[in-house]
Amino acid sequence: MSRRAGDATSRLVPEPPGPGRQRPYRFPQVVREVMPRGQGQARGQVVAAHLPGQPLAVATLLLGASASHEPTGREGLASVLARALEEGTAARDAAAYALALEGLGAELFTVVDWDSFRVGVEAPVERLPAAVELLAEAARTPRLDPADVTRVRDDEVTSLRMWWAEPGPRADAALRADLFGADQRHGRPVHGDPASVAAVSADEVAAYHQAWLTRPGALLVAGDLDRLDLDALGGAAFAGTSAQPAGADGPAATTARPARRILLVDRPGSVQSTLRLGHTAPPRAHPDYVAMSLAGTVLGGAFTSRLNHLIREVRGYTYGIRADFAHSRRFGAFTVRTAVHTEVTAPALARGVGENIRTDAAGVTEAELEVARSFRAGQLSVDMQTPGAIARALTTLVIHGLPDDYHATLRNHLLNATVEEVSAAAATHLRPDRLTLVVEGDAAAIRGQLAVTGLGDLADATV
Amino acid sequence: MPSPSGPGSLTGFPWPVESARLGNGLWVIVSEDHTAPVVAVNLWYDVGSRHEPTGQTGFAHLFEHLMFEGSLHVPKAEHMRLIQGSGGSLNATTNPDRTNYFETVPAEHLELALWLEADRMGALVPALTQETLDNQREVVKNERRQRYDNVPYGDAWLRLLALLYPPGHPYHHATIGSMADLDAADLDTFKAFHTTWYAPNNAVLTVVGDTDAATVFALAERYFAGLAPNPDLPPPPSGSDGDASATGEVAAPTEREARETVVAEVEAPRVYLATRTAPFGSVAYDAVTLLATVLGSGRGSRLYQRLADGARLAQPDSVAAYSVDLAHAPAPLLLTATTRPGVTAEALEAGLAELVDELAAGNPAVAVTAAELDRAKALLTTGWWQQVATVGGRADILGQYATQLGDPARAGEQLPAWLAVTTDQVAEAAAAVLQPHDRVTLTYLPAAKEAAA
Fold first, then answer.
1. How would you label A334-358 residue by residue, b for 16+ Cβ within 10 Å and e otherwise?
2. At the top level of CATH, which class does the domain B18-224 belong to?
3. Closest Cα partner for A385 from B398, B385, B36?
4. Which chain A residue has the Cα nearest residue B125?
5. Is A264 touching B (CB cutoff 8 A)?
6. Touching B: A residues 154-193, CB under 8 Å
7. Residue B252 pLDDT > 50, yes or no?
8. How far apart (Å, rounded) are the C-alpha atoms in residues A87 and A94?
9. How many angstroms separate the CA atoms of A459 and A447, rounded?
10. Alpha carbon distance A305, A368 (integer Å)
């Protein structure tokens, strides 16, 4: 092996090369249609992106039946409805439905979040029309047999119990309740918890469908539009719907907690502590959106961020740590997420808070911001190659009322953000003295070290 | 982008593929596509956890971490900063067979990505320090805790490998390695690891996206041609039968029935059935892929219809069947399901066993039907196009088919090969790989909870 020892025989180019010619950024051509074009009928919106030559296509029906509209004590109702859509339709039973849809190479995906309820399909482009017909069949005319819905509800309870046995979901719930209040819908988990889902009845599921899934909504299409007939897709998606006035939903009232504190969630025997550090943030429409998100990128949004560098690459406390500002239409939150070896729980927490304090107080540097700008701008190209990613970008346009050139504009905003703007956003929107520090771990092993951190009072969470 | 299908010319890879070999043995593959202004750079090194000797489990993967910590001309943290600061995404993975490194960057930064890859291929050793090793050892131990030790059922894959492959077999131990071996890792071992395996003649460099072959070949020459090859690459580890993949035969049952029951902090009993099938790349393995899809993908699958919907033994979210693409020995096929409340592990296992036993027995009344096979083919078709929808996904596939099957063009044949599988071939595969005397059964049972006070 002496031949390569010390790599002395290899010739390498010592200096990094500069960039080549920059390619122009281009988001796919967007087409918007309102359908049907006739008078006096419920109108749905079709928003499509043209992906020439792409073998696959995605169609997503975007509806207003978000988690935000679920009644108190029934959190998870929309998720049960989403699951129940495939339990047979007016036209065929569950097994026949599965075979028809999967025979096209498609599977139904459903998403319930704070702003929307989405049902979608992805299939080879020539099979998309048939898949959209089946999508509409499930969304508009599900059978919702009470016995099936009750079984689906029970399955969802079991599924949540399994999920809640993993590290993370209970910490997330404790943080959310502390930030927004357990008496608020957005202070409870987006998909509910085992108790709230168990309280959902088949009648409530049918009523939620009647109230929300009979509205036209919007159909988002990403694919080769030369091979797709948007009128036909929209016709299938909006058939039989009726217009209803949308309720007003202004920003949710939030109040930051008066002082930083630690909430302990016991997970006996856990070999790691799951950490969630968070506080409230403004909704998506806030004018500081871009500067705020860049501050989040410098602090915790990339491998090279301050948190990951210190907690992983210098200290070795964790496999990874991330932080971000996330926003829905009505509220937002800043959250740091990681899992650390049990024995270093307190120092990891202290150093995590320390980086928040430093970023809040002293802002960002030009060197850091240069990486964050380029990273976020480049990701607009790197992350948006697939029909699925483009369909999600269209979702953002529709939910937040953004124009067709939004992504190109966003890219310019990212690239032109200054150190002063981003540091000001950090000072305004990071509030390290108001952080809720949730620690989910082996309480018997870590309570002592958490009690003496000086980071804030220690309390036991009630999740 | 070219049309994916034309009359009589079905291919799963309708993009050009060009390749060249540098004088030092580095295989360079290029696939041009100007749809998006991005380019993917991907390296497959033909070294994985199968190469690890006893006492050094987890070393190939820990080494992968060290590849991001700086090289002769790249200070610590600079690799990540340069790629992310160019707008790129990057990562690496290690499995039993191989280690891959990849980044997707805006196209104007292709040359930077190649420079970084060349520097760590050619000169990692001078930058390796004890401090870096100690740091990444702790990171990897936390990776193990996070992914395997601290989650319910998290160690299933580790246990299944040990049950499927005998001690001494290259696939017997898991890639993540043991805590004890990781603690014992010393710096010189990793220096030797790089010197032995990270040579241009043990790697495939694939570039896909907004560039062209002539440009890439010229850049590869500039940055990689000066790297010395290793003329003494060790032979593949014993216990592997890499040549068998060329025969296309399903490996004969090896009469190794095994079972293990684990009592752990889990919410519900879970059962895994696992078998050894055929190496990735063989005709037999293609039939196994279809079999797995028929059995376990989607709501129309046999597992879903029979165990989740029909007999209501299993949680609907929990049923799955899949094979794991490993090329150097018969690859594993796994079936799994978790009990619904009130159902015992015994009842669920009996349901699973009945479902595979009847296929293994070749009873024509329950043979896989043409409709079931068509459903599986449709799902695999969509899955394939999803996999090649990004330049990064495409680059990884070309690297895989070049490294493991000796020809990147084999990538274009994969989808047609799946579509050509017949019901008879699926029946043969089922009879060959699902026999009860050649089966591994792993069961998780919940630890008894203390009675509430």
1. bbbbbbbbbebbbebbebbbebbeb
2. alpha beta
3. B36
4. A6
5. no
6. 154-155, 158-159, 161-162, 165-167
7. no
8. 5
9. 10
10. 8
Region B243-446: CATH code: 3.30.830.10
Amino acid at B12: G
Chain B CA closest to residue A51: B35
Mutant choice from B41, B150, B304 vs A, greatest count of A C-beta within 10 A:
B150
Residue B187 in contact with partner chain A when CB distance is under 8 A: no
Has residue B257 got a pLDDT over 90?
no
What domains, with CATH codes, occur in chain A? 30-238 (3.30.830.10), 261-460 (3.30.830.10)
Q: Which member of B142, B341, B389 has the closest CB to residue A318?
A: B142
Please list every residue in chain B whose beta carbon sits closer than 8 Å to the beta carbon of residue A384.
36
Write out chain B residues lying below 8 Å of A319, CB-based.
Answer: 139-140, 142-143, 145-147
pLDDT digits (tens, 9 = 90+) for B104-151: 999 999 999 999 999 999 999 999 999 999 999 999 999 999 999 999
Q: What is the mean pLDDT of residues A255-269?
A: 92
| Per-residue confidence band for A39, with pLDDT thresholds at 50, 70 and 90 | low
DSSP A49-77: EE-TT-SEEEEEEEES--GGGSPTT-TTH
Q: Which residues pair with A273 in a beta bridge?
A: A340
Nearest to A10 among B139, B228, B378 (CB): B228
Residue of A214, A198, A188, A149 lying closest to A68 (CA atoms): A188
The ipTM, to two decimals, is 0.94
A315: its two tokens = 């200290």
Instruction: Find the CB nearest A12 among B72, B106, B382.
Output: B72
d(CA B360, CA B294): 14
Return the closest-CA partner of residue B62 out of B158, B184, B202, B208.
B184
> Would an 8 Å CB–CB cutoff place B361 in contact with chain A?
no
State how far residue A242 is from chain B, nearest Cα, in angstroms.
31
Q: What amino acid occupies position A181? A: G
